[in-house]
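Note to self: the last two entries modelled the partners one at a time, which told us nothing about the interface. This time every component goes in together.
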Amino acid sequence: MQISVISLIIVKLSTPEIDKTMRTLSFTETNPQFGAAILSAKLKWLLVATLSAILFLLATQQANAVPLFARQTGQNCLACHAGGQYPELTPYGRYFKLTGYTQGTRQDIPIAVSFVGGMASSPSGNTAQSNSGAGNSQQNGKFEPDNASVYVGGKIFDNFGAFSQWTYAFDSQSTNGGVNNQNTFGADNQDWRYADHYVGDSSSTVNDIIWGASLNNAPSVTDVWNSAPSWMYPYMPSSRNGGTSGVPVNALLGANGGLRAPGYGGYIYLNKNFYAELEAYQSGGSGPLSWMTYGSTNSNPNSTPTYLKGLNPYFRLAYQSDEHGPHNWMIGALGMNVAQYGPNANGLAPGSPDLSGGVTQYQDRGVDAQYQYLSNPHTVTVQARYMRENITDNNNIVYGNSTNNLNSITLKASYVYDAKYGVGLGYQNVSGSADGVYGSNNYTGATCPTCGQNPNGSQIGSPNSTAWVPSIWWQALQNVRLGLQYTAFTQYMGASKNYDGQGTNASANNTTWLYLWMAM
Amino acid sequence: MKAKNMKNTLRKLSILAAVTVPLVFSGCTWFNDKPPITTLENPTRSRTLGDYEVNGKVLAQQVCATCHGLTGQSESPMFPKLAGQQKDYIVVQLKDLRDHSRSDKYAIVYMWGMARALTDKQMDELADYYSAQTPMYGEANHSTSAQAQLKRGEDIFNNGIPTAGVVACSGCHGAEGAGMAEIPRIAGQHSDYIMKQIHAYQNPEDKALMEMGGNTWAPKMYDLHRNLERGAAMNAMVANMAPEDVQAVALYLNTMNR
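The predicted structure of the combined assembly is written out below.
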């Protein structure tokens, strides 16, 4: 009762202001140039006002001023994050997520914010070549804000909680384009879940059952192991330099953000050993769940919604070992079948979906594993994943061939001392059948107006790429991280030398990423 | 045209939702600060901290067990075993954690938050639950290189180190290391945990610049120590213990009661 009264007041108060903004927003659609200035002024005002309000509210909560979940439990980040290397989860962190973020005390102000900024630099962006604007070398050699997130949720009711992340990607000052939700807030990771936990007599065969249901916006975003695509290293890439994430081609279930679409399903976790999850994903463009992909629209050149045919199943099975002293490990399998419509426009250009043009079908099957050694002040963690993707594209919506396949291997090992000093090494390898699509710039994101039809794509139409991703970081405080990450490509789009037929070597895409991450 | 209106409406609704949802969440508790409106659909399986309605046994199973184990026989050396721990000891420790008079580093990191909202009644119930479990048991250590260390540990446990002012552990903790009242059971405890505690007793002047819980942007110098009053005897007794002796006794304690 109280809730609805307060929300009514808030709705009433906010409506005129939002109406004004909305009129401005509509105005910009017909007068793009003139409108853009007003729009950007308005958005900036809104942003500043919102942030000020959040900061004010947080400041008045001196006793428990910050990251949402830590405020909720009162524990340091280290409790849930292995060695403080976000987002890697400890056994306790996994439990916290599986029980629906409901442990602890519900917060008066369930908000946290984070910020990433830094400098990404690749040799290809430094050359005088006409391909210097490649997608993996935007923001070359400049310190710039990259993205900022607002998190809401945490414990909402006794059995219901959320991890709801909304991210603002700052405009690239070096080169425009290529960044999802550029200059706007967009829905980032969303995981709203209901969960319950039964504890039985320890002598019974089944003495511990966690079960729940989730509404989320990407396959594996619900996962609690860091070998899952949504949560695997590198953890803090630049949003506008693809090289900081690793290889340019990935299976749908091969990397974070491979597929963003509303999904729902359930899971069960028996005896803290056996985990099974089944989810279904659907189109995100419109309908009551479109807020889960907020920011993606048919007219957004940086982010069009994913249009899927019907419900697309995702499954996840895992066996998590008991803890043996400081050791614990997990082996798992995951997979997904996806039928995706193509856009009306050719290639991956924005536009409304072509619902009568058939679908491209993806069948992803993978196995993964994780090992953790956790004993303060030492943290050692290792993750591995192998993913096989079979692609059927009888209507040649995306691919030139009617069938293709893609195999990916992703590995990472890291050591953290005292949750302060960390070193990590990642390895990524993608190999698959050759296809004409890899000859285009869709995968490398290159913009090359002067170099013809095949800018920066693979000369031989191959997706084969290999990257090594070492990094070091320092966390002076639990909510401030300074990191230096390097991506070394030994193979890029089919070759190590001259992969694009224009003299570009794989190493031209090597990327240095010096970043600052902060949260509060 | 219709599609466009629809889109605008949807966009309006999304913005409205983005603005109102957090405000509503905050609003509904903001004006009802203490005590909170109960949201317990199933108080027998709640993970809520800060609600007096949840029984300590429920908290033990739903919250504490994640690190300390359902029967208090924790696997991870980072978290002490609580199985069969002395009830009075558990109660006073929880109170020390709640009022921050126990402030060794990992107590701050992990336990200040957990203990901050426990009621006396819940603490009592939690202590009942864990003290009633089959007492913690240790792990065998068959490594031959450890035998000399274990022997040294056993010697310290039974006879102390008179030259260093270390009295026999068994004097207070009992011949079986089972403890009594506010003196903890130490037989079978993780050796890593024992070493960290002795370190805290040996260095009551330690300080660290850190943040506590979600209280970010408020780093401060914390004094790292066990409760100074309650720990005064331990502070004095282990003050001159050599690191290798600390390790020896910790290893030995872990092999007791198995």
